[in-house]
């Protein structure tokens, strides 16, 4: 076992195709240079401790409790068995055992406002820890992040990839160079972690946070493999604007499922229209171009799907007022929007950008002026 190790992974922006990607359409995602960083270090006592300050969670468990949980999840729930699968299986029964443990052990502070976020993070942590460390191993995990949590910038995938990278590296299952083979393993295990947080994620978020850069991603239908096309990322400057409206991705996905049940025709048309739009955007993207009008149109389709929010619409309206295109990014329902800033050095464009920034600040929004397309998960 190594000494202390540190692993970090970026967030992401979905440029086009969120939600439709869950239903097998293509989507484009690009990494963002805001990182989650996990430090792992050996402990001198028979305990496992995880500290997630971004969600105010600090838990320490004895080996006796870990062994108890290991016995409950059963003999098949361990690295050597699970890692043999290309898609690591997660049985509902295993999730239920871990959820029950988190509840009965009172791991979540009573009457916590962030109880949902804390429970999911604790379940994902334990789900990974139990599988990856076949024997209880005394470790302290500390996770810091620059990303807003639950705001559409892929905090859960970035949390997953940095945690998985740390666990696999400290247990000697991958090297510290994070070779292509190591990244493939991190991606598969980060997807496994995402299932604890999201239920049925498409896999796009863990892919882009693991490999970095830009990807055109399509989930495989009927158990088929996903397809991914890594694209040399055109340099994309964007404002990432946080509404500060909290939401969870799994809750927003449930909302879209409700529309599907109530009005299948409408839902299907929106999915198809997003699919067609993404195909157009991919064509441009391959030629190094981002089409502003498609960004705006994609936002309108997401509005029709019912996943926008008045605060998101306000940001997009302000962007339009100053001649820019924007859309919500990620699951929506709150969280973040991104506003595309085309390449221009004219004084007029700098002036309108500054006016937009002032208006966003006056309206109470936080934003980052950033370039998209950073590196993926890495050992520091
Ligand atoms: N730094 C972190 N520490 C602990 N848990 C985290 C951290 N970041 C994310 N999480 C977990 O992930 C959950 C947020 O996932 P969610 O998918 O709702 O948002 P997101 O990943 O930011 O958005 P999107 O999926 O739209 O990109 C949190 O509620 C928490 O359980
Ligand atoms: C909303 C969604 O399409 C993107 C979340 O970043 C969910 C997913 O792809 O798993």
Automatic annotation (TrEMBL):
Family indicated by similarity: Belongs to the GHMP kinase family. Mevalonate kinase subfamily.
Chain ranges of the GHMP kinase C-terminal domain: 292-348
EC numbers: 2.7.1.36
Lineage of source species: Eukaryota, Metazoa, Ecdysozoa, Arthropoda, Hexapoda
Catalytic activity: (R)-mevalonate + ATP = (R)-5-phosphomevalonate + ADP + H(+)
Subcellular location: Cytoplasm
The species this protein was found in: Allacma fusca
InterPro entries xrefs: GHMP_kinase_C_dom (IPR013750), GHMP_kinase_N_dom (IPR006204), GHMP_knse_ATP-bd_CS (IPR006203), Mev_gal_kin (IPR006205)
Any matching Pfam family: GHMP_kinases_C
GO terms assigned for molecular function: ATP binding; mevalonate kinase activity
Keywords: ATP-binding, Cytoplasm, Kinase, Lipid biosynthesis, Lipid metabolism, Nucleotide-binding, Steroid biosynthesis, Steroid metabolism, Sterol biosynthesis, Sterol metabolism, Transferase
Record bears the keyword Metal-binding: no
Main location as per UniProt: cytoplasm
Superkingdom of this protein's organism: Eukaryota
Keyword Lyase: no
Single GO biological process annotation from the record: isopentenyl diphosphate biosynthetic process, mevalonate pathway
PANTHER family: MEVALONATE KINASE
Record-annotated GHMP kinase N-terminal domain positions: 138-213
Enzyme class, UniProt record, top EC level: transferase
GO cellular component: cytosol
Identification of the protein by name: Mevalonate kinase
Pathway: Isoprenoid biosynthesis; isopentenyl diphosphate biosynthesis via mevalonate pathway; isopentenyl diphosphate from (R)-mevalonate: step 1/3
